[in-house]
Write a structure and sequence with these properties.
By secondary structure, the protein is of the alpha/beta class. It is 42% helix and 13% strand. It has two domains: 143 residues, HAD superfamily/HAD-like (Rossmann fold), CATH 3.40.50.1000; 68 residues, DNA polymerase, domain 1. It contains ten helices and eight strands. The strands form two sheets. A six-stranded parallel β-sheet has the order 5-4-1-6-7-8, sandwiched between helices. Strands 2-3 form a two-stranded antiparallel sheet. Helix 6 links the parallel strand 4 and strand 5. The chain is globular, with a radius of gyration of 17 Å. The two termini are 17 Å apart.
């Protein structure tokens, strides 16, 4: 266990702490349309949480059209451009800031691990309005992002804890799959658009509505802030 005798938390960012999933979905849809690949939003939504390059590859494969590497790179770049246009509409999810501040005040270690780009993550983290710059890691620092567990194990290493001591909090099945592969406990939040059943089937230990619900229910995952 950590020095506090409590587990450490590894938080996803988009859809878990920030209400940004649907801005990402729309940006991806526009990006694919720019190369004449028309996709329904539900198909894109089910891949949100993956790294951008993997999402582009998997979604295009499911559409029945294989993209060249050049096309994949263009889609990823366009997604970033289109998402940036909507970033002003991204806001923290209910209770996100209060949860993180409460964990810090109780000396419970935590870190944010996002599959997003580093510059994108920096601008988003500011929206949480935290007292200090939070610890975080992005896909730029690892060879493979979620659902590969590498970013989670790197996050644990940055915190100085062993993977089994970590609780991963995420809104997508990819977060939970990565957590399972990293031998970490997975907790699901429904605020990213996945149902309780989908998250449970992806091996979530517990499922909550949003960060506020998790904060009020920490005892259900064996964490006390007192």
């Amino acid at each position: 266990m950590t020095s506090s005798g409590r587990p450490a938390f590894v938080f996803d960012l988009d859809g878990t702490l920030l209400d940004s999933v649907y801005q990402h979905v729309t940006a991806w849809q526009r990006a694919f349309a720019a190369i004449d690949v028309d996709l329904s939003v539900w198909r894109i939504h089910k891949r949100i949480g993956m790294s951008g390059s993997l999402l582009a590859k998997r979604v295009s494969h499911e559409s029945g059209r294989e993209l060249t590497q050049e096309q994949q790179d263009k889609v990823v770049a366009l997604h970033t451009e289109y998402f940036t246009e909507s970033v002003d509409r991204v806001q923290p999810l209910p209770g996100a800031r209060d949860l993180l501040v409460a964990l810090s005040e109780a000396d419970v270690p935590w870190i944010i691990a996002t599959s997003g780009q580093a510059d994108e993550a920096e601008s988003h983290l500011a929206k949480l309005d935290l007292p200090e710059e939070p610890p975080w890691i992005s896909s730029a620092e690892v060879a493979s992002a979620k659902p590969d567990p590498e970013i989670l194990t790197a996050a644990a290493e940055q915190l100085g804890v062993d993977p089994p001591e970590c609780i991963v909090v995420g809104d997508a099945v990819w977060d939970l799959l990565a957590a399972r592969r990293a031998q970490m406990l997975g907790v699901g939040l429904m605020c990213g658009g996945y149902s309780q059943q989908e998250l449970i089937e992806a091996h979530a230990f517990r499922v909550f509505m949003d960060p506020a619900d998790l904060h009020a229910s920490l005892d259900q995952i064996g964490v006390s802030l007192e």
